[in-house]
Records
---
Amino acid sequence: MSRPAAGRHYGWYALGLLSALNLLNYITRNSLFAVFGPIKHELGVTDAQLGWTASAYILVFSLAALPFGVLSDLRSRRAVITLGVVLWSALSVASGFVTSFAWLVVCRAGMGLGGAAFTAAAQSIVADYFPIRGRALAMAVLASGNTVGGVLGIWLGGQLADSYSWRLALIVVGVPGLALAFLAARLRDPARPDAVPPVRELVGGVHLPVKGTLRRFAPLMIGLLVGAISAFMLDRRLGVESDVDIAVFGLAVLIGLALNIVLWAKELERVPVAALVSEAVRAAPAAFAGLYADLARALGLVLRTPTLVYIFAAGALLSFGMNGLVGWAPTFMARELGLSITEAAILMGTWGLAAGLAGTVVGGLLADALRRRTAAGRVIVVAAGMILGAPLTFWLLTLREMSLFVPVFCGAFFFLSWINGPIAAVIFDVVQPRIGATVAGAYLLFIHLAGDTVAFPLVGALSDRYGISRAVLLLPGIALLGGLAALPALRTVETDMRRAAGPA
């Protein structure tokens, strides 16, 4: 398959720009982790509350990823990307001026909206510029911002906080995105026309079937309600410590989400996806019919595509282990290895940057090379990276000698970084381009809601009770389960790829 008509060289420019923006996305996101210590001292919060500042971003990111994915498929991916860049950049700057913990949480939650708007739309555009051949490498280059930006965010945040203040650190990392937003607004979309219905017309014609919508999301909403009431009663009426009410709330939401997925699966077994789409289109106004059709099609596709089910489950476990590890790494190194914020940031910013970047590129190249030999090549790399990296990470977290800590750190980070490009490429391999951003949004919603949204506060709560050295040992075990969860996709990916290559 040839590259889209927008131009081979322009495709590389678009990939470079989007990769730079993703780099800034993760720099602004992860700089917070480097300044946990100063924030805890100045605002007087617990480790569990610090975990919730990270989860506020992830929770909003998760819930907004699917709607923004649908919006990207229906309208302008370029506009959605630009909106995301402006949101996360402006709110990163604003978070440097907060005077209370509550306002910090609000700013980080708003940044999650920006990250959600950018991520699915950017992946979808890259997938269009780089069809099957070279896709995993292109996705790896885009995803290198996850690793490189994440590490640079911790390094830069630590350096600025140590030399100046944590407030200046959060302000400085947000400024470059505001400048690059102009280039994002001029990005050429390779496959979508610019002419779209005006937003007022689209929104004005919305008549949601309230009863049916409430019924389909009832378990999740009940889980949110029960979790909130239980957490309030435990915290206010019974005087139970905060880590208990947080755990109860998270468990109730996860149970609600799980029951909702079961409900959707049973409904799709009774009624064919085509019938759901037709019913939705008939019920919706013409300007908004695409939203219902895309949501129904994406949901049906995920639940009826075994590879996506396995990848979604693996992604949630990987997100729990990997992102929880990255978020709490500076705190762990400061408390257990006796490093200052600057020393921990330099260690992650040099060795972590080198190992993460090398692992991301090698993972993409290896996945594309194996893909030429077998349809399951990219799945093999996803599973192998986690199965090799998780035991090294567990070993790493038990070490206290720096002479051995650094090489093991590099090895673990190298293997864990393999997954960044291949796992995104697998998703776009088994879905048709028309709803690629929608399915990517569904993936992001699920893995973060069931993954690192829980990991950040849970590790913080365990740290408050048992200490950070014991709390973080949970993370590599969960990541290993993620690698094992991807293995069944080895048997299903070829069939699902053939189905995706067929007629729409």
---
Amino acid sequence: MSPQDRPVLIKGASLLGEQTADVLVLDGRIAEVGSPDAPADADVLDADGLVLLPGLVDLHTHLREPGREDAETVRTGSQAAAVGGFTAVLAMANTNPVTDTAEAAERVLDLGRQAGLVDVQPVGAVTKALAGEELAELGLMARSRAGVRVFSDDGRCVSNARVMRRALEYVKAFGGVVSQHAQDPDLAGPSACCHEGEWSGKLGLPGWPGVAEEVIVARDVMLARHTGSRVHVAHASTAGTVEVLRWAKAQGIEVTAEVTPHHLLLTTDLLAGYDPTFKVNPPLRPDEDVRALREALADGTIDAVATDHAPHARHDKEHAFVDAAFGMLGLETALGVVATVMVETGAMTWADVARVMSSRPAEIAGLGGHGRPLAVGEPANLTLVDPAAATTVDRDASVSLSRNNPWHGRSLSAAVHATLLRGVPTVREGRLA
């Protein structure tokens, strides 16, 4: 009997951190919840003391393939995702070649299926070659086998308002969404490498102000209102962005937003040692921004947590701070950071974690088979979490190809115990199955 055919009994799990029940999985779906009689050949997962969540969904992952397989591949990125409790990830378009055609999107989709560890959903570029000038093949990508619904030039802002308006109008026709890397290139400047403020002055580093993000967010929510279309704010990082989002949602504008784990915990003072591990775009911000982001995530102003997992080969990251590549790893540690920052502090429950890391991201991305309730008949894309585990992050233990891990040496609360993709365990006891 293949793993796909074998029944799985998850025994004694706490569903969303609330009631305890056994969950029987048959043929990739939840067959019974309560006290089912398991078949004799069932694969039994002892879940005593563990929390069962719908499988995590990441709206924002860089898998680097094709083009930079020295930093990550779809397979190694999928491994990192599975270990982190994810059952679906959205692969950003800034590869080489760029995912700006239907053929390129289908290639990423097929690479994900070959890896077989998570569902890899390609994100299509908004503009050809991410140049910000001419719309990419949005309709063809949407109608392709990849069924692209999220489009982004992430890493680059769609700074031209006319192009952004046309993109919003175009994707509205098939229920798509534009995910914007909100960063005004004129306010940020070509050499900016950190937040403009006290620490950039102390360290002599060129910085860009929070308003460079906020003016693009403000512009885009007005364009979304004008077009009646959907805009998604990638990696929100400032208190000012939170203010704009609250206003826009109060007006009924179709805007959603994500925050990264690193923007929920890490602050700009970490730049004091000029460690390029902490160079990220958007940059780490001061305490007041971090507090605003946490509050916005807890009250629903920010819809989702997304990793912005950005692996880099050492020869791209190990440079002087101003010359190093932007980005951090995030897939394997995201849940631990959210548990530490939001659950351990009482700001959120495990049901809230399921909302911001599974059901809401799946809804934004249009992934119907993910983020579903823990109920009979639903796909068995599931994550088991040990809420009592405390882990110290070791960058050398990562299954990613890269080592630009900002959490190295930190202790994080909770740990992923098991991950199931359509009823098949991809991770057991924290390790790839």
